[in-house]
Amino acid sequence: xxxxxxxxxxxxxxxxxxxxxxxxxxxxxxxxEFAWGHRTYLMGIINVTPDSFSGDGLGADPAAAASLAKxxxxxxxxxxxxxxxxxxxxxxELDPAEEARRVVxxxxxxxxxTDLPISVDTYHASVAKAALAAGADAVNDIWGLRxxxxxxxxxxxxxxxxxxxHNQRGWTMANPYDAIGEIRRGFEATLEICxxxxxxxxxxxxxxxxxxxxxxxxxxxxxxxxxxxxxxxCPLLLGTSRKSTIGHVLGDVPVDERLxxxxxxxxxxxxxxxxxxxxxDVAEMRQVALVADAVVARGHLGLVVRPVTIxxxxxxxxxxxxxxxxxxxxxxxxxxxxxxxxxxxxxPVPGDQPPFFNAVVTMExxxxxxxxxxxLKQIEHDLGRRPERRWGPRPxxxxxxxxxxxxxxxxxxxxxxxxxxxxxxxxxxxxEVMEGKLPNLEVTxxxxxxxxxxxxxxxxxAL
Length: 463
Known about the structure:
Blueprint: H1 5-9, E1 27-29, E2 32-34, E3 41-47, H2 62-75, E4 79-83, H3 96-111, E5 118-121, H4 125-134, E6 138-141, H5 151-158, E7 161-165, H6 179-196, E8 204-207, H7 216-224, E9 237-238, H8 244-249, H9 259-272, E10 276-279, H10 282-295, E11 306-314, H11 319-333, E12 339-340, E13 342-346, E14 356-365, H12 369-382, E15 397-403, E16 408-409, E17 414-415, H13 424-433, H14 445-449, E18 457-462
Parallel strand pairs: 3-4, 3-10, 4-5, 5-6, 6-7, 7-8, 9-10
Antiparallel strand pairs: 1-2, 11-14, 11-15, 12-14, 13-14, 13-18, 16-17
Helix pairs in contact: 2-3, 3-4, 4-5, 9-10, 11-12
């Protein structure tokens, strides 16, 4: 007997357990792809401060920074974060000129030995500008662009990635019992700044700010409730490594005795939805992330996510409303749409019924083809489709056109849909959302469309 994930998971797996390609757009930096939701990424911390809380400060020593960077890369780091000012509670603000003097030579030295993405941990625009010129790719701003009014413009003009943290220090708290609600308010303020400056959401990473103005109990709530922030649809970075809350839980142990506590916090952060974790101990936390990813169905032991293409049609009732309701149903049941065509009106077959509205959408799913078909049938039923004559009028019709590059041949399902290349009402929408050759058909939608009669097809609306 062949087993599938449906035999173990059923049809009611919560969306929170799905590998989350919908959570945020993929990010590519220096050729490194960050496919959010597929695995957890590791950010290695390089402190070039003389007074780091964690005892790992290197000072302004470029050679030491480069050596640590090479070691972290060998241990599995995906990203490096270089900072020159201590952010521990009570630390005095560093003069930007001194901060730049520390970080710029170290960034240059690290860039010379690795092509990993580098972020500069600063909230000063002048330091960020110098760091980007020295080889950094991103700015990690612990004030979420709300400290230096020039920072957002610099990010927008440079095209850099921004890691924007919610900093509770100095933030007026509306509800001390709702840390996640406070973070959400902070994120909304930051995203408003990003939108106002034209900073694309695909280049924004958000950090809830574990340890920045919170009590130990609130910090633990952040980990416990992180999943509530997933619908913001930006990747989430969490930095718990060696922080005082870990020491507090363990009985006020010193920094050098917090490795296992950090490991527990990292694993639980991943279970709650963290996309990246900021750590000092890369080798150890890589093992933690691999196991945690496997448990929550991400990474190489996780569920396989495949792109799917779905055709929609309606010729009864509010045709456009039916199509849009079906799209909403797909997103609620699985994940957001990754691309959608225009709505096309086409003549019906047979001709004794109203014209159809047709469209095509693409999305990603962990479901098997059979499980996906069940979802489509349920949406059809919810929107009023009932058993009727074959090829008859219907409020909604949903078909799986493609399922990755796989072929499916069963009594109930054939993929690719066997009559795609004959159907102008499918090829027209397909040409809008799929470039290149159609899976298993060795022809593009545009090429196939040129071979059919399109006289009865016209675009009528946006989906």
